[in-house]
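Request: Not sure, any thoughts?
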Amino acid sequence: MNDRPSASELLAAVERFLEEAVVPALDGPVRFHARVAANVVRIVAREIETDEEHLAREWDGLSVLLGAEGEEPPRDRAALRESILARNEELSRRIRAGDADTGAWRRAVLEHLSRTAADRLDVSQPPRPAREREGP
């Protein structure tokens, strides 16, 4: 098994190549598409870096909401995604049934959904400098 370069290091190298060598050498629509390709590489790199943490956080949030705390998540990433999907289907069913219309469970659902959405946006949006994150 090769330890280096890691997937993140390889993606960073491709991104640098696109941004420093390819994009400056192009014009018009092809230049735009090269920038899009560099951005896709950045998004994939961020997903690789954060995927495990985001999946664990979503699993934990769903476990609390659905009363399944203490269950061990599947170790295999594909199985974990499948389990999260099944739990999201159960959460959706309960929301449609009106369980989240009022009360403390509603607040917990909204917090969970907000956190999960923020994690997904975190992957697709470029990192902001600290001064932008902190606000005025």
Summary: The first helix runs from residue 7 to 25. The chain has a mean pLDDT of 90. The CA atoms of residues 28 and 43 lie 23 Å apart. The two ends are 48 Å apart (CA to CA).
